[in-house]
Every structure is written in structure tokens, then in C-alpha cells.
Design the sequence.
């Protein structure tokens, strides 16, 4: 068997006495969707932040494509093909949707120390950005200010930006949070299509989406992985049912 | 610094609108000398030259403050560096404006690279304060320089020549040279803010986290902008020294830095045109009020407090509210 | 040499204490309200002028000093009500604009009321003498009294902050602003209290310094910038930090001006040493500040700034 694309080894992080990540280890194979589920406050976002380079773990290693990236910053990881989307939408509000995505294209293509030519006239940037917007179904919003988009559109834009970095591994932090029923269905379709191109680590509360997309599911409770395996195995695990699924079964 | 972003974001009027407004300003400025001549009020040319000198300085500050969200409280240091470059070089017998400009920009680039690299390690209030500290350092350095007049400053023998020609010797020559530099600085910065570099800088203002998640490390871009702004401000310093035929550490006091921020906030940050208009209005107000009463600072201060309390976004905020300038879609 | 050193050390401490009195209120305003107040130095100046005015009217030092406190407190309250209160949730830039305007207004008002010429305030007779220091050196009683008063104020501030409910709110606010906001109704009164008390302390400092230095319209400017240095070195929002940094800045500044040229003379010829000393001495505190921020971007006692 080949080496995993992402290998997390004994990752730990605490804030004072609060252990937010405890000895987490997991492997993500190329071409798979690995979902991480768990109740609120389980430390899912903290874990993603350590994988993306926003937070430094206290101990443990993150190995990506055979390279130890534990000490690499977020920008460096993005350039290696490890992109993320944020749970709390993080866009450039006064930029248009197109400009948001074009900037991500610009980050990997050519120098940004160019001072005179207006970036808006660079057809190559705009074309690639439009393609990413089309991927997420946001073409008709290309020239709207990001700050004026609806919540669901912002989630789509967030994803288009991540795609524009040409990721090999995509870290998705609750990409469906706050989207309407229809938008969510669209996004799930999109992820299903992306599966051929991109490996994904998915944090999501929407269990239908998780079980539709994931090849592997890990359950995180109080910063620890309590179960890991195929969706059906995890669903059947009694420990998981009491720790997590039981709560989630109650309608929101 | 979300609070800053919130104030900055609305101040992004339509591109065409702010360009048109800037062209109007240039056109009006261009007819000031003949107008002053016709009215027999030659001091108007001198006042307008000062207004434009500070417009150049305010434009340079807008690049880092308005576009880069780096609130520098020590920007007057570069005004002083430019002015002292003229004083030092002319003392050494180098009287040409081009050489003086180059020297001023080189000195500013060195100072900005060193102090910018240290300052950018800090954020928020700390950044404001550390830039202030570096500004004060430069101030006290020149205050203690007794060979250059120390606290009192030093008068220049004459204005600089331009490639050997005495272009700056009379008031209209000085005026049009300054106007030419102002137009050049505005045009350059306008292009720069739309360029790839400008996008990265503006993006960092809006969300540094988002930029990192796109694969950018903000520091080199912020530092480059900081250096460019310093160099451009020293151009204003060179012209200020020539206009006044006098150089003093007062050019780089913290009051000047504060005043430059006031010009920006008054005109509206992050639109270039706002910075320019703010500088013109500020100097015009100061000169106009000073003619009315020796206690003009009282009125000027009250105006500033009033604008801060009742007109967020400064002049451009006011224009937008009455519908003269529109937001970008 | 040692005597001279001791003398300058005391002078430095006295200057530091003064800086602390001005900085204590301002660091809380910075830390809790995230408010840039350029007008704080002007309150120090107002304290000096009120003192000079009251001395002119009553001729009694103690009575005048007692009057300065309520009057500068009142000035602080009025400014808070009219201006600052409306600016708490605005950007730093709007705050700079408004408080820069206030500096101009208040300085000009002072010029209109009392003129530009420096005023002097007579020292009370009880404190006019000097006491023997080491050997033949003597030290003015008044300066010792300033140091003592400052230490007493610092102690009582420490008591308020460490032992009272208001102090608890202040500490929580400096550490985490959201926490104080969560406490609801108290917040406006807390802000007002901090502001007014800060104004009073600055005014008090301006009043007690008036017999040593003269009272003039520019006195607020110099102290304001040094106060910023103190606050940033100590860490924004930390009164303890402000105390340590104020003494540090006071002593470094005073000793640097005195001993800088002497030390430099051992390394270069006297003329060059004199010039270099004159150049470096006033820059010393700013170099100190840049160095501190280089190693600790949030100051000595500041909480780490999230990047």
C-alpha cells in the first residue's frame, strides 16, 4: 500500500489546563474523503487549524506527501497544495467575488511584485478565476462585492478561493454551516464531483452529507479520537452512539 | 483590526468617480498661478504650493495607512529626511533637484527598511506607538545636529536647480514643478493600487488570515509598501525645503505626523483622491484661519473634533452621504 | 562620582514617578477601551495652569493643590461626556482626529486665558529646604516629597486594583475586553470613572511639578510622547507595567543625559563625544522602546497580541 497523503502523528495542544487536542493520530489516503465528526467543543476546528498551519501544536507531527510540515506556516502549506476553508467566512469583503478568486490564482502564478499593470486586465487570472467560480456555481455573482453576497454564496465563494489554489488536499471546516437546503445539496454534489481530483478532510455536522461523501469517519470527543473507520462501522459503534450520535439525533 | 477595516471598507468610492474628482482638482490647481496674477494676490501661489507639497505627503501616507492598514504615526520623519537631504547636499555644493531627490529617496529607503522591519513585528496600538518612537528618534537626531542649526533649523542659500536650469527660482516655477510631481505621484500610486502588488496590499488590509490561506506571506508586501511610502514622502520633504528655502526639525515633529493623519482622515482614507483633497483642505483651512485670528488653532481644533464626531469617513463620507460620490457595486 | 550618580538616580526616579502619574490613567484607557487619547498630555498641562491660577488667587499651596483635584476631575468628566464617550466604538483614526483636535483647542484656550509666557509657582516653605545626602551633597526636600507622594499614589492604586471590585473589573477589562462588555450596565460608569480618575492623576502630576518646572502651553506635549513610551514598554493596560517602565524611562533618560557623554569620552575624543552624547541622549528612551518591542512585541507586562 502507498503512503498516506496526510499523516497526523500524536498531535497534542492545550490552552492552560484545557487539553483541546490529545494525542490525535490519523492517516488520510490520496483520493479519499476523511470526515471528522464530533459534538460542539470537541476541538474539530482547533485540529483543522493545526493541520492548516494557523496554530502550532504543542507536540506531535504533521507529515504531508512525505514531508514533515509541522513547523511550516499556513502560506507555505497552501503552496504545497494544502488548502482550507474557514468555518467563519473569511473573505475580502470590499473585493468582488472575481477579485477574491483572482487573488488566489495570482498567489500561485507569477510574482506579486508587479506594480504598474492593473491586475484586472490580466486575462489569464480572470479566466482561471471564472472557471473556479463556475465550478461552485457562482458565475453570475462574479462582479458583486464579496461583502454583499448572501450567506450561502459566501460559503460557495470560500470554496472557489480554496479551489483556485489548486489544492491536492482540501481541509473543509463545516462548509455547509448556515447554507439553505438547496445550496447544501449543490455543494454536496460539488464535493462528490471533486472527489476524483482532490483529497478532502471534512468537518461537518450534517450527517446525511457526511455519510454520503466520506470514505472514512473519525469521531473526535474532548480532543481525542474515540473511533475511526468506515461510515457504517462508525455508525454501528455503540460508544460513538452514546458519545455523539445520540445527542445529534435530537432535531435542531 | 476589524474596527479599522470597517471604517476603510466604505471609503472605496467608484474608481471612475475618484479619478474624475482628482482630474478636476488638478485642473483647478493648474489655473491658480494665472488667477493669482490676475487678482494681484501672489501669496496664493505660495499657499497653493504648500498645499500640494502636503498633498504628496498625504498620498504617500494613504498607501500604507489607507491601503495597507498600517497606521504610522511617524511619517513626518520622511518629510524631514527629504528636507535635510536638500540642506546637506546643497551645503556640499550639490544643488540639483534630481540628485537631491535621488539622495532623499535612498536615505528614506534605508531608514524605512530598518524601522519598518522592526515595526511590522507589532500590531495595533503598538505599531502606532513604535512608528511614533522612530519618528521621535529622527526628530531628536536632527535637533542635536548643531552644524545644521539644531533646534532652530537652517536657511538654504538658494532653491535647487533642475538639471542645471533655474526652474524653481520664481513662485510659478516652484508651483508647476510641485504640481508635476503631485500628478506623477498620484498617477503612480493610482496604478500601483490597481496592480498585482496593490491587490495583495489591499487584501492584507481586509483580512491577513485570508491572504495567508491563499498562500501569501504579508510581511514582504507590507514592508515594500512602507518603503515606497517613505520614499515618496521624502519627495514632499525635498519640495518643502525648496519652497520655504529653510529646513528645520519641526518638519518631523510628532505634530506633523499627527497632522498628516488628520489630513487623511479628514479627506477619507484608502481612495488617494480623499488623501489629496484632505491635505489641500487642511492647509487651506490653516492658512485661512490663521489670517482671521492668531487663535486660529481653536477653530481648527473644533472643526476636527466636529468632523470626528459627526462625519465619520471625513469629506468623502460627507460627499457619499449627499450622493456626490457613489460606492462601487 | 558616586554622589553624582545617586543624585541623578533620585532625579530620574522623581521624573519617573511623574511619568507614572500621567501614564497610570492613560494605560487603562488604552487597554480597556482600546482608545487612543492624544489629549491626555493636555490634562497634565491643565493641572499645572489650574495650580498656578489657584496660587495666584489664594497664595496657599496646599489649598490650591486640594482644588486642583476636583477641578481636573471635572474637566475629565466633561470631556468624557462631550467627546470621548461617542468615540469608543470608532476606529483608531477617528480617535486620533478628535483627540488631536482637542489638543489644539485646549492648548489654544490656555494661551487665550493665561498667555504664552511661562508661569511659575512658589514652593511651600515647609518643603523648600534641602537635606544632606552623602558627603557634602544635599537634595531638595520638595523632590523627595514628589517621590514620596508618587509612591503613595502607586500604593493606593495597587490597593484599588488588587483588592476592590472596581479593580477586579479593571483587571478583567485589561485582560479581556469582551469579558467586561459582558458585564453590561456597569461598563459606561466604569469607563467614565477610569477617564476622570486618569484626568485627575495627570492634573495632579502637572500641579505638583509646577514648583520645579515652569508652567507653559507646551508642557503637555513632551510628557505625552514619553507617556506613550512608558505605556508601550510596560505593556498596554498594565498599571504595574506602567510603574516599572516609568521608573525605567525616567532613570534611563536622566542618567543618559548626564553620563552618556562621560562614558563616550572614554571611547572617543572629547569634541566628538560631546556631539555624540548630545545626539544619543534624547534618543535613548526611544531606542529602549524599540528594543523592548523588538524582543517583546507586547511590552514587558502586556498580554500577547494575537497575530
Sequence:
Amino acid at each position: 500500500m502507498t503512503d498516506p497523503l496526510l499523516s497526523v502523528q500524536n498531535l497534542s495542544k492545550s490552552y492552560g489546563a484545557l487539553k483541546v487536542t490529545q494525542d490525535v493520530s490519523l492517516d488520510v489516503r490520496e483520493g479519499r474523503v476523511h470526515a471528522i465528526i464530533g459534538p460542539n467543543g470537541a476541538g474539530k476546528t482547533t485540529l483543522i487549524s493545526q493541520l492548516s498551519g494557523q496554530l502550532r501544536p504543542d507536540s506531535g507531527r504533521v507529515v504531508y506527501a512525505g514531508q514533515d510540515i509541522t513547523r511550516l506556516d499556513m502560506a507555505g502549506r497552501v503552496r504545497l497544495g494544502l488548502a482550507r476553508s474557514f468555518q467563519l467566512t473569511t473573505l475580502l469583503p470590499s473585493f468582488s467575488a472575481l477579485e477574491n478568486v483572482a487573488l488566489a490564482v495570482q498567489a500561485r502564478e507569477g510574482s506579486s511584485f508587479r506594480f504598474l499593470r492593473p491586475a484586472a486586465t490580466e486575462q489569464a487570472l480572470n479566466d482561471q478565476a471564472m472557471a473556479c467560480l463556475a465550478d461552485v456555481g457562482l458565475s453570475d455573482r462574479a462582479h458583486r462585492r464579496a461583502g454583499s453576497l448572501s450567506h450561502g454564496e459566501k460559503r460557495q465563494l470560500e470554496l472557489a478561493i480554496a479551489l483556485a489554489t489548486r489544492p491536492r488536499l482540501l481541509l473543509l471546516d463545516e462548509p455547509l454551516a448556515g447554507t439553505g437546503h438547496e445550496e447544501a445539496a449543490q455543494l454536496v454534489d460539488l464535493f462528490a464531483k471533486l472527489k476524483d481530483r482532490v483529497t478532502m478532510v471534512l468537518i461537518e455536522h450534517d450527517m446525511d452529507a457526511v455519510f454520503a461523501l466520506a470514505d472514512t469517519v473519525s469521531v473526535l470527543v474532548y480532543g481525542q479520537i474515540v473511533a475511526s473507520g468506515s461510515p457504517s462501522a462508525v455508525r454501528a459503534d455503540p460508544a460513538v452512539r452514546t458519545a455523539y450520535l445520540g445527542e445529534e439525533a435530537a432535531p435542531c | 483590526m476589524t474596527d479599522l477595516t470597517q471604517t476603510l471598507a466604505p471609503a472605496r468610492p467608484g474608481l471612475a468617480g475618484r479619478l474624475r474628482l482628482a482630474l478636476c482638482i488638478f485642473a483647478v490647481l493648474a489655473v491658480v498661478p494665472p488667477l493669482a496674477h490676475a487678482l494681484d494676490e501672489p501669496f496664493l501661489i505660495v499657499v497653493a504650493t504648500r498645499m500640494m507639497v502636503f498633498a504628496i505627503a498625504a498620498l504617500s501616507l494613504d498607501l500604507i495607512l489607507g491601503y495597507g492598514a498600517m497606521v504610522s504615526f511617524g511619517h513626518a520623519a520622511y518629510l524631514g529626511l527629504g528636507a535635510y537631504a536638500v540642506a546637506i547636499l546643497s551645503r556640499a555644493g550639490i544643488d540639483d533637484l534630481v540628485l537631491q531627490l535621488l539622495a532623499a529617496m535612498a536615505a528614506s529607503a534605508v531608514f524605512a527598511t530598518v524601522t519598518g522591519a522592526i515595526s511590522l513585528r507589532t500590531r495595533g496600538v503598538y505599531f502606532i506607538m513604535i512608528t511614533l518612537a522612530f519618528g521621535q528618534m529622527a526628530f531628536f537626531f536632527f535637533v542635536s545636529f548643531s552644524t545644521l542649526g539644531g533646534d532652530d533649523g537652517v536657511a538654504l542659500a538658494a532653491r535647487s536647480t533642475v538639471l542645471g536650469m533655474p526652474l524653481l527660482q520664481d513662485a510659478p516655477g516652484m508651483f508647476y514643478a510641485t504640481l508635476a510631481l503631485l500628478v506623477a505621484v498620484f498617477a503612480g500610486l493610482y496604478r500601483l493600487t490597481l496592480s498585482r502588488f496593490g491587490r495583495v496590499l489591499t487584501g492584507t488590509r481586509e483580512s491577513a488570515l485570508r491572504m495567508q490561506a491563499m498562500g501569501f506571506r504579508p510581511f514582504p508586501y507590507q514592508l515594500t509598501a512602507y518603503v515606497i511610502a517613505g520614499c515618496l514622502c521624502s519627495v514632499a520633504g525635498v519640495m518643502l525645503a525648496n519652497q520655504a528655502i529653510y529646513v528645520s526639525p519641526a518638519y518631523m515633529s510628532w505634530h506633523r505626523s499627527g497632522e498628516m493623519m488628520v489630513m487623511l482622515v479628514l479627506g477619507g482614507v484608502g481612495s488617494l483622491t480623499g488623501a489629496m483633497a484632505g491635505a489641500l483642505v487642511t492647509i487651506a483651512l490653516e492658512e485661512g484661519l490663521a489670517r482671521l485670528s492668531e487663535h486660529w488653532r481653536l477653530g481648527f481644533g473644533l472643526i476636527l473634533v466636529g468632523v470626528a464626531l459627526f462625519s465619520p469617513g471625513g469629506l468623502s463620507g460627507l460627499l457619499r452621504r449627499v450622493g456626490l460620490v457613489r460606492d462601487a457595486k | 562620582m558616586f554622589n553624582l550618580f545617586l543624585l541623578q538616580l533620585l532625579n530620574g526616579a522623581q521624573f519617573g514617578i511623574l511619568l507614572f502619574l500621567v501614564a497610570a490613567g492613560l494605560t487603562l484607557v488604552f487597554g480597556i477601551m482600546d482608545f487612543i487619547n492624544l489629549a491626555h498630555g493636555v490634562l497634565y498641562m491643565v493641572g499645572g495652569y489650574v495650580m498656578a491660577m489657584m496660587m495666584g488667587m489664594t497664595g496657599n499651596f496646599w489649598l490650591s493643590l486640594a482644588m486642583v483635584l476636583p477641578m481636573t476631575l471635572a474637566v475629565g468628566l466633561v470631556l468624557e461626556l462631550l467627546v470621548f464617550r461617542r468615540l469608543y466604538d470608532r476606529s483608531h483614526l477617528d480617535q486620533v482626529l478628535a483627540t488631536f483636535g482637542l489638543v489644539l483647542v485646549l492648548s489654544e484656550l490656555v494661551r487665550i486665558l493665561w498667555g504664552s509666557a511661562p508661569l511659575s509657582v512658589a514652593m511651600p516653605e515647609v518643603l523648600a529646604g534641602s537635606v544632606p545626602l552623602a558627603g557634602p551633597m544635599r537634595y531638595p526636600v520638595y523632590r523627595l516629597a514628589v517621590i514620596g507622594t508618587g509612591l503613595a499614589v502607586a500604593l493606593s492604586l495597587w490597593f484599588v486594583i488588587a483588592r476592590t471590585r472596581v479593580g477586579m473589573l479593571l483587571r478583567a477589562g485589561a485582560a479581556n475586553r469582551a469579558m467586561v462588555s459582558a458585564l453590561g450596565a456597569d461598563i459606561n460608569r466604569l469607563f467614565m470613572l477610569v477617564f476622570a480618575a486618569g484626568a485627575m492623576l495627570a492634573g495632579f502630576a502637572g500641579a505638583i511639578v509646577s514648583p520645579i518646572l515652569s508652567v507653559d502651553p507646551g508642557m503637555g506635549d513632551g510628557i505625552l510622547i514619553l507617556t506613550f513610551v512608558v505605556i508601550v514598554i510596560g505593556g498596554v493596560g498594565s498599571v504595574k507595567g506602567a510603574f516599572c517602565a516609568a521608573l525605567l524611562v525616567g532613570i534611563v533618560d536622566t542618567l543618559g543625559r548626564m553620563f552618556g557623554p562621560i562614558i563616550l569620552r572614554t571611547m572617543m575624543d572629547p569634541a566628538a563625544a560631546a556631539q555624540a552624547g548630545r545626539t544619543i541622549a534624547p534618543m535613548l528612551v526611544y531606542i529602549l522602546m524599540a528594543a523592548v518591542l523588538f524582543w517583546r512585541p507586547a511590552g514587558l507586562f502586556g498580554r500577547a497580541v494575537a497575530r
